[in-house]
Design a protein that fits this description.
This protein has helices spanning 5-15, 21-40, 80-92, 94-104, 120-132, 134-141; strands at residues 53-60, 66-73, 112-117. With 143 residues, the protein is α+β, with helices and mostly antiparallel strands.
């Protein structure tokens, strides 16, 4: 078994070309179905009860056996510990979610899921704040 799925994807992407249409299509299908399942499901895990989750991206391995799911609390996690608690809860529920996904999708096999905190929203916010800084703004306005 692969110890660190994220490393597999990163090294695979850096060595090879961009994801195939098949990988992109499978990732988008999984993203939509997971978002729907998480929104409708009533979880026993208290860390998932009543939580709204944003599934921003799903990256699928070339063999479609593994999927990294980038997720975050809806509206962005202001509290990093709370966001990580949500991701940990999703990883505890990944077998259940994989089973539900398998019954809802028409794929040959259902990929193993790994949930990772999506920090792209925070990064975009930080960049926006940086670009609106008066010192940076004056450099940008020179052009």
């Amino acid at each position: 078994m692969i110890d660190n799925i994220k490393d597999l994807f990163e090294t695979d992407m850096s060595k090879h070309k961009a994801p195939s249409q098949r990988m992109l299509k499978a990732g988008e299908l999984i993203r939509r179905m997971l978002a729907e399942i998480i929104a409708k499901e009533h979880f026993r895990d208290k860390d998932l009860q009543g939580k709204s989750v944003t599934i921003s991206e799903v990256r699928v391995s070339p063999d479609l056996k593994h999927a990294i799911v980038y997720a975050a609390p809806l509206g962005g996690g202001r509290n990093p510990a709370e966001s990580q608690t949500l991701i940990d809860a999703l990883n505890r529920a990944k077998k259940f979610l994989r089973g539900r996904l398998g019954s809802e999708m028409e794929m040959k096999s259902t990929p193993a899921l790994k949930f990772v905190l999506d920090t792209s929203f925070e990064t975009a916010q930080e960049m926006s704040e940086l670009l609106s800084d008066p010192h940076i703004r004056q450099d940008l306005d020179k052009d």
